[in-house]
Amino acid sequence: MGVIATYGLRPHEAFRLDFDRFRERNPIVFVQPNTKTGSRLVWAFHPEWVERFSLFSVELPPIDLTRRNIKVGESASHYFRDVKLPFRLYDMRHRWAIRTLKYGLDPSLAAKQMGHSRDVHDRIYHRWIEESVQQRAYEALLQKADRPKPP
């Protein structure tokens, strides 16, 4: 669950990571090519969660990785539903997308890390942009020394 929350992965992708590379204390995860949208690099948002959730020593439950991705994801989702998680496992992926916006990550980069197009990203997450996020972006732009000045 911590890997999905920290990296915004699809549930099946938590089982399709290059854990050898990750365990070398590189907090960037490499999603392997045998996923829904292929290989990609993903950065932690919040990076503090790597330590908080002990992700460098994560132990995945035994699961038949020869199964199709959708079945692996369904198994993970069912497990967390059965233990009465108060939200859906996939909701953590959505929260990661919103968190990257609050951090100020360009939405094109967030889309790439999530493994989809900018159009898909905008269609899904645009409605979740809160007023406070827009206000912070506005204030940051006004503080830029090279911003346009009024005539």
Polypeptide structure, described:
The chain is mainly alpha-helical and 151 residues long. The protein has one domain: hpI Integrase, Chain A (Orthogonal Bundle), CATH 1.10.443. It has 8 helices and 2 strands. It has helices at 2-7, 19-22, 48-52, 69-82, 91-103, 107-114, 118-125, 131-143, and strands at residues 29-31, 40-42. The protein has a two-stranded antiparallel ribbon. Strand 1 and strand 2 (40-42) form a beta hairpin. Helix 6 packs across helix 7. The radius of gyration is 17 Å and the shape is elongated. The relative contact order is 0.15. The mean pLDDT is 84.
Short characterization:
This protein is mainly alpha-helical and 151 residues long.
List keywords for this structure.
151 residues, mainly alpha, hpI Integrase, Chain A, two-stranded antiparallel ribbon, 8 helices
The CATH class assignment is Mainly Alpha
Q: Which oligomeric state applies?
A: single chain
3D shape? elongated
Low-confidence stretches: none
In terms of DSSP E residues, the strand content is under 5%
N-to-C span = 53 Å
- Specify the number of helices: 8
Find the CATH topology: hpI Integrase, Chain A
